[in-house]
Amino acid sequence: MNGATTAVRPGLTVPFTGTRSGRAPLTWGQRAIWHAIGRTAPNDHYFNLGRILPLADRGAPVDGPRLADAVAALVARHEALRTRLAFGADGEPGQLLFADGETVVEVREEPDPDRAGEAAEELLADLTGRRFDYAGEWPVRFGAVRCGGRITHAVFALCHLASDGHGAEVLVRDLRLLVRRGSAGRPAAVTPYDLAHQQDGPAGRRRGAAALARWEADLRRMPPTMFADRVAEPRSPRFWTGRLVSAALPRAVDALAAVHRVSGSTVLLAASAALVAADRGHPAAAVMPIAGNRTATDHRDLVSTLSQDALVVLDLPEDLDGGAVFTDLLPTAWRAALAGYRAAAYDPVEWDALLARIAGERGTEVHPYCCFNDMRLVERPLSATESPTAEELDGLRRSTVLDFPATQELVACRYCLHLTGDDSALTVTLTADTAYLPPAAIHAHLRAIEELVVASAAGAPPRLASLPGLLERLS
Questions:
Q1: What pLDDT is attached to residue 472?
Q2: Is the domain of 245 the same as that of 350?
Q3: How many CB atoms lie within 10 A of CB 133?
């Protein structure tokens, strides 16, 4: 048996057997997240992904052996789950794929059926709250909640080197099928091992060079950074996460997307970008959204880290009379986003070299330090219903919740916006460096995103010239 978990915890020991082993370079997505991990360690548990799969809601009862069989099949099916970080003689990181091994499902006993879901959340927090041993531990930690001999929830924590958010959802789907049916169909045709060799070949290098040429053009014309000057003494912990949960935003976003023939993600990207530019008086907003890089058919079911940073530079219109409104930005934002996403697959080592060269030429660091991550997997089909009225949106806004759910000491950015949610509510979280965005400013940006989008959907898009005043009023 090749490799074993570094610390065996009480639970189910699950042996697994795959079809091959070998060494490969890191994929571009793995290199990108490895660089981010290095900038964030020892707080790199920030990047861990976690999912909960309820198993008591439907189908036949699931016991420990049945779950163990499904976990073994899942790890055999997806090579990313049996791959660890490995360093070569030159110190360069690569990936090491194991053919077989064993993993452990940590089982948490819960005598109260009404607490099973809460116990699953607690187990998830425990599994995701610890950094991974990238070379000495499998990149997935499995857990389960058992109540009266029945498995009610399966839980897993994923190392971001193994998968991005889309891949995590693939794992949830496949584990459900393996538990319920014993089969999940044919696996993805391409694996991270294959992808690494493709990207390291001539065709991959040409594609990466073309993407970086687009980056270079934008890096030369954008503001060097969106948050250049500290405005306050940093708090301790330094990075605060603000959260806004809004039932009004999904209706408003969908309405604007339908009217202006853009995606809902573009609406929210344009809103956050316009506010960032207004906050610091920039004529353009430079934002780095996370691109899924899953347009190729053979990548859609691939469990791997394909996501990489894109660069979107949104030029604000010349507004000499102050009459330009937010919705004027949407067509430009749509085109800028498409161009940025097309150039989001590249070698991060060459990307680092490009940023260093541009910084030398411009005489200052060039990096937006402004990130946007729409974690919803796909754009929802736009509703054919009429646009919401101002009264309807005002009513939905009465349930908006705003809080600070988390703080941490180190994040390698200054403004990181994340979107999650569904048709019923959209959750917008903003993690920011309090030296550049104090807590009151974090909440002001979140409130302003809702205000900007909702007012626009209600037929009264705010003037771009009014956005600095909006942020000040909401602080």
A1: 96
A2: yes
A3: 15
